[in-house]
Amino acid sequence: MAQKPSIPKGTRDFGPQQMTRRNYIFDSIKNVFQRYGYQPIETPAMEQLSTLLGKYGEEGDKLLFRILNSGDFLSEVETGAAKFESSALLPFIAEKGLRYDLTVPFARFVVQYRNDIVFPFKRYQMQPVWRADRPQRGRYREFYQCDVDVVGSDSLLNEAELVQIVNDVFGKLGIRVVVKINNRKILAGIASYIGNPDSLTDITVAIDKLDKIGIENVNAELALKGLSPEAIEKLQPVLYMDGDSHSKLDKMATLLHADETGAKGIQEMRTLFAYLDNMGLDLNYELDLTLARGLNYYTGAIFEVKALDVQMGSICGGGRYDDLTGIFGMPDVSGVGISFGADRIYDVLTELGLFPASSTQSTFLLFVNFGPKEEAFCLPLLKTIRQAGINAEIFPEADKMKKQMKYADQKDIPYVALVGENEMLQGKVTIKNMKTGAQQTVDATALADYLQSLSNL
Hints:
This protein has a domain at 361-455: Anticodon-binding domain (Rossmann fold, 3-Layer(aba) Sandwich). An eight-stranded mixed β-sheet has the order 1-5-6-11-10-9-7-8. It has a five-stranded mixed β-sheet with strand order 13-12-14-15-16. Strands 2-4-3 form a three-stranded antiparallel β-sheet. The model has no long low-confidence stretch (mean pLDDT 90). Strand 12 (365-367), helix 14 and strand 13 form a beta-alpha-beta unit. The longest helix is centred in the N-terminal third of the chain and has 20 residues, at 16-35. The radius of gyration is 28 Å and the shape is elongated. Helix 1 packs across helix 13, helix 6 packs across helix 12 (260-277) and helix 8 packs antiparallel against helix 9. By secondary structure, it is an alpha+beta fold. The chain contains 17 helices and 16 strands.
């Protein structure tokens, strides 16, 4: 019995229509990145585990896909009980892993090529990442990230520019969004304020799940992590503080005035919001004190972008990291970046019906094939219009007209060219609109210009 073809859970195949739509997303994002002076790089799908481990927190490390070493990897292992524990075996079994995100490989890249790049270094990267997560709606084991980062500059103008990029990308795609902003220094100040300065990671990991599991479960998790009922009670008004962003900052300034780190975070947010208020953006942005982003490497501003018209998790997020390169031997290099989740953006565009009709088309014009003489007439025309930048093809054989028209219809080709004996004698081409059925006969010499005018409609 033949094996039924299948793919691993949490991964997907993409057919031609899906790929054309995905490329529409990638191209839209890439064009905005380039407009702001960011340059492309790529890094390998796999990295050394030593590069990846310890950068994402305990929960992130559990989600790393490890790659099995080739060969007889147990041959060098001593079989004594103590030596045979899984932690001791791991270096022999797996030395490499699939990348979990694009930021840590980027930090490794910056350090490795520090003498070849210009600082501040502005890069974008659009590649797949892998996480051994439980697949569910909007969450995959293999998915693309579209990252944009700048390293080698402490200026908060970089953060403001990233929000501008978010504004331009989602404006271009037609998705209404809100940008939620917080600062890890403020969160550190809150941890001190409630009397648990050493529990910042536990607090951020827990409150980062607020939207997913609710306040009661977050409080229960904090209690499990050792926070006292008094500390948890003291945290509640902070999580549910009302008012606009500026009034929240004023209230937090009063609460955290005695904490140097928290006060610095508030000052950073005041500067950032002053930039944003001056930029005339089309999107909503707000201070959200419950935003934590669980990744350990964030040290300053953090961002999360949510679609307003679809119930889904964040579709874009990121933040400031002050010393991610330090772990690779290059300390005191600050960076900030955000990542666009292409797969979730695809789902949002699909749900809202926002893909333009052109995003599903790969071919604009099909020449119907009536036979060898007509083929010979059409092929030079096909070359000319392709050189003019118009996607076109000819049916490969003189098959029944019904079959050729069905082909055009199924491929969503908007126009077909009909060239029979009369057209050849007159040096003309008949163009048929597949949607309306309307036909127009044009001079063969003017075909490219006519098709250009149609494509601009």
